[in-house]
Amino acid sequence: MHYITAGESHGPQLTGIIEGIPAGLTIDIEKINQALASRQGGYGRGNRQKIEHDQVEIVGGLRHGVTLGSPLALIVKNRDHAHWSEIMNPTSPATPANTVRRVEHPRPGHADLVGGMKYRHRDLRNVLERSSARETAMRVAIGNICEQLLAALDIQIIGYVQQVGPVKIDTEPSQALTVPQIQKQVAANDLRILNQDKVTLIHDLIDRTKREGDTLGGVIRVVVENVPAGLGSYISWDTKLDAKLAGAVMGVNAIKGVSFGDGFKDAASLGSQVMDEINYDSTKGFSRLTNHLGGFEGGMTNGMPIIINAAMKPIPTLYKPLQTVDVNTKEPLKANVERSDTTAIVPASIVVENVVAIELAKAITDAFESSNIGRLKDEINRYRQELVEY
Amino acid sequence: MHYITAGESHGPQLTGIIEGIPAGLTIDIEKINQALASRQGGYGRGNRQKIEHDQVEIVGGLRHGVTLGSPLALIVKNRDHAHWSEIMNPTSPATPANTVRRVEHPRPGHADLVGGMKYRHRDLRNVLERSSARETAMRVAIGNICEQLLAALDIQIIGYVQQVGPVKIDTEPSQALTVPQIQKQVAANDLRILNQDKVTLIHDLIDRTKREGDTLGGVIRVVVENVPAGLGSYISWDTKLDAKLAGAVMGVNAIKGVSFGDGFKDAASLGSQVMDEINYDSTKGFSRLTNHLGGFEGGMTNGMPIIINAAMKPIPTLYKPLQTVDVNTKEPLKANVERSDTTAIVPASIVVENVVAIELAKAITDAFESSNIGRLKDEINRYRQELVEY
Amino acid sequence: MHYITAGESHGPQLTGIIEGIPAGLTIDIEKINQALASRQGGYGRGNRQKIEHDQVEIVGGLRHGVTLGSPLALIVKNRDHAHWSEIMNPTSPATPANTVRRVEHPRPGHADLVGGMKYRHRDLRNVLERSSARETAMRVAIGNICEQLLAALDIQIIGYVQQVGPVKIDTEPSQALTVPQIQKQVAANDLRILNQDKVTLIHDLIDRTKREGDTLGGVIRVVVENVPAGLGSYISWDTKLDAKLAGAVMGVNAIKGVSFGDGFKDAASLGSQVMDEINYDSTKGFSRLTNHLGGFEGGMTNGMPIIINAAMKPIPTLYKPLQTVDVNTKEPLKANVERSDTTAIVPASIVVENVVAIELAKAITDAFESSNIGRLKDEINRYRQELVEY
Amino acid sequence: MHYITAGESHGPQLTGIIEGIPAGLTIDIEKINQALASRQGGYGRGNRQKIEHDQVEIVGGLRHGVTLGSPLALIVKNRDHAHWSEIMNPTSPATPANTVRRVEHPRPGHADLVGGMKYRHRDLRNVLERSSARETAMRVAIGNICEQLLAALDIQIIGYVQQVGPVKIDTEPSQALTVPQIQKQVAANDLRILNQDKVTLIHDLIDRTKREGDTLGGVIRVVVENVPAGLGSYISWDTKLDAKLAGAVMGVNAIKGVSFGDGFKDAASLGSQVMDEINYDSTKGFSRLTNHLGGFEGGMTNGMPIIINAAMKPIPTLYKPLQTVDVNTKEPLKANVERSDTTAIVPASIVVENVVAIELAKAITDAFESSNIGRLKDEINRYRQELVEY
């Protein structure tokens, strides 16, 4: 399984192709659109999200709502393109009239400057249109298809917010809750957090930060339940599934750290505190008494819930602009201010959830014969039963 | 560029092949052996390391000490194999005499149990012989060749220890030191730490932990200087170099978290605190006033030092054994105790340094025409000059 | 560089994404459309081609006609979809009304039967809609972009017809002609052949074959000039560029054989007859006196024109239908007859030309730093000069 | 599954690593050595083969003769290295004494000249030591392991000689014979041909060619039986298994053409002549009445025997040397004569057989869950039964 996306933030559309989804899977388009809406929501967003109301179209690989086994082609139109149809026109030649809104003052923390140097762009809009997090809408659409695949195999996944700026959501360890319980709790507020008592505090933090023209990051957690043991392998560095997941999560815009289970806390603990002792039950087979390691041993899933944490840096586009340099005159000045959010931690939690779903769907379809969803289900069930009987 | 390793912990040898190292690079074998020796050192190691004195042999791709451009084949013999020549014999059939020392009590925190289930092994030695960190010796050998390649391009790298168990090495931010300065300071103690004042404290911690039959993890930092801006790209999720580095670092045994620059601390900060403002100097071109982001923007190197942090969990093999279950009788009991270290944070810092070196060498040789080191040097120099003149 | 396509033959559109085209390349959309029109032409085609008049749209990666360096997204609408909007509707659920025109009699020589078995389809339309050569329209669109990239590097390419059914185009060896000369000659007839004298003969053959309800294959030749020496490598089996080209050409629908230079004729010759002796000229450097090997030695381009031959089987959809079996009743009967061509050798010559262009563009952009077309041109020119001075 | 090889022709050894062979497979080392011996045999070989008597050692991934699931490391020592231990010494610095036997007169038809230009070698021995067909010994060793895997799944394979120089082995179509029958017949002579009556004729041809200082190529055929239908896919150009096989076969030294089934003959035939009509049998399921297409439809195996043809050019190293140019003086002169064979068509047939085995083993292990050979067997059997019941 592999996928690719294309499209600029204010271009006509985002386009995605994913190959390797089994034939015979019924796709619920509305679920994809709900995921896209979730990505556009959350407290602390700017105005762009009010413009877009993303809707996916599937124009390849699907017939009568069921996958064909051929590559799926997805489209998400950019409604905002109407206002940029000349400036971001793919084919009409450049003229003075359509090359306005040039970006020549690279924003610190963004791809602008290095992108310009690497690709020899002088109008840094040519960089930021692609490096923008707008692209993650397509990753969510593709990820939701993968979530539907995982659901067909009884695997549940949720991404939510564990920390906003300095405020940690102090609550009982989330792994004590099932994924459906987490889903329900985080749906009860616009911060996607487990602890309702902290909502007002964080709203206030975001409001204050916004007034000051500043931005916030946070920490995201993803939990996945009922993943079969034995995905990934210890045999080579690049067959470890936790390593692949780490790469995919770090590949989400603004993510600067990723960890499994207790993560960096493990580093400060004693061995006797962090190992998950092994238990056996004749009907369920082997399990672990705890889950400090977040569902991975030796780069393989061990049957416990997967727990991934991701650190998101604050959005670098500030209304309180930072020092930069004009790429032409080389004069120091203040960075351009593009329309921006105060914090994108809520949508980022959706995006991280979805890239995790993609990697897990990939791990499963790569490991098992996955031409058809029915055959795949049978195989996975037999494999699960075999593990119980080990 | 790509590489693969093979070999079991007590088998005859580790074998590695790396393809994509340019022709014409002079390889200093002694440097590789020094790196292998460093991986075997450090305070807190067990007895195995006194048995092995790793020496690399190169049996392909090298002639008269110079690379040919063809794949390099490396060998590191396992001296300990002499004691295991029957038990780990590749070809002689299994007999009662050579199938002793079976492992049937999987150790929590290791690959043992899941590996047995996945590959249908009943003697879990068949798992642990490969999942053992012994394999990282070959990654270090290959990594040192990559470091020699990077050095030819004036890129310096160092991995060292930032935290042992709960003890953080409080010192001025390491990025204020040059890589040669860091190399010198961390070579002055057997903990590979910057702050000599903490050596006794940490020695005591390790000694006490050892007496209690427990183990320690820690945090590793890698710093890389003089990397050209523009390696990696924002254009697709899987072209981001920080994502690839995160995957490679997470692929090191016992690593549970990875971050760039300020990492998880960024998540708690305001945007105005963590962005690295842009500066310009007519002779050096663009730079950043700070380096909170650890040398990456938009998944690309930005010319600032790369700073990577990795969290290592404590070694799961305890002398104070953990609960497990016999895979045959299903009786609960205590895990096997294999020969082990109290902490492997020092060697892990070498390993992480080396896998970072590999990924950077890969990023450069994949991006630039790299058949010959002389041509590659010329290209990189022209590219660097172009960036200064942007 | 890599690409993927999606879309069914009677679905709404073909979609393609290609990543790795350098920034700064001006794309001539009309050239792409001309290539698409060429793929739809040629003597011996059926009626489908009169329905489609393919036009490409680029909806990502292009701005004002110039590449951005980000992935290019291409669309070619299926005009015929209007007649199939219910039967091939991606999302509306299956009903008796929209599941007509089922295919349950697999056609020999097509993917129908095996595709049904592999993906568990009972309506084999779910197979043939994707396995249809309709998909090659997108490969041509992507290939033409690659041809425009090659043209910017002064590399010319042409694919044409060497044999139709049993009729070989006996003419002087094509490698004696330059690519522009070949382009001019083959454009003078609707068979894309070099020898005008054979046009009537082949027209008659096609007409007669059509009357008999039968079909014809043929042999295609692709010639590429001015490719720098040293693309590909002998160092590993999977770095050989001729091997990659062979895979790409064999990946074109209906191609059953591929060879380089004299190909299978080489197998019957003496070594002294087929080796291309080496010559030297102080201004041009090294060259070969002949080109029996088709521009490759040791899996590398050697600077001589690349010559590739491809054998195309006759189109398997006959009006004189073949024996098959109903997949439900298991009764023997005659295969369905879908709308078809008598020969598709002319369009296939376009498709093969284009997949060769893609692989060569990939070989160049993978080998050289290719973020920007201007930088790439400079590098290639320096490299070419270096080879002359070797 | 993937593999890589390393090692120079006169270096200490060939090294290979293959990852992805299932755990639990018993490896017969003697079978590998027999395959290595076959590669060294055949009428028309030179003296080098009398020096080498290749023996494989497995130094990783194998324990007590059974695969562990971890990467297998293989070694084949070069016995001839004893005579080259200084000239081809990996590590001792270059001196006048050990840099004799330089190659500065590139041989037409070899990688010598282009390899020198690409990698900036002035002693072309640095090229030919790796581009030599010596490397194929390791591909045979790895291929034989794959053949043992295929045999465990009841898949048989044979490669043999169909044509030597201009002499075709006129016999009944080989697909009428089973693989074991072919194996028996071709083992009865030193030309690996089916028709014993042609042995003397071809011996004479080879002897005469040798006296004249010339060389011969030929055509190889590989037949594989009992491959499950549905390997590979029509869904994308790079998922077609025939395309991958074509690449692997073209990646064998001196191969200039590859085809399936009737191959280039198909191009001259009518559609009604070359399509394989579909048949059904209630116990065996679907089959084809003929096999013109060589076991592939739509890039997928169709359950019929796979038939691959490969055209080998004559060995370019002639005792009747060809014109070349000294790379230093640029003077025209005659090419160096290295020790050589008159024809290598027999060993090449072994090599092509083995690379086909590798690709098929890869196709199967990539498609099915292949951690353990027992589980894989069960899956394949269930899959085969499902296809019968389609």
UniProtKB/TrEMBL annotation, chains A, B, C, D:
PROSITE patterns cross-referenced by the UniProt entry: CHORISMATE_SYNTHASE_1
Protein residues bound to NADP(+): 39, 45
Pathway in which this enzyme or protein is active: Metabolic intermediate biosynthesis; chorismate biosynthesis; chorismate from D-erythrose 4-phosphate and phosphoenolpyruvate: step 7/7
EC number: 4.2.3.5
Binding site for FMN: 130-132, 253-254, 298, 313-317, 339
Keyword NADP: yes
HAMAP family for this protein: Chorismate_synth (MF_00300)
Family per record: Belongs to the chorismate synthase family.
Entry protein name: Chorismate synthase
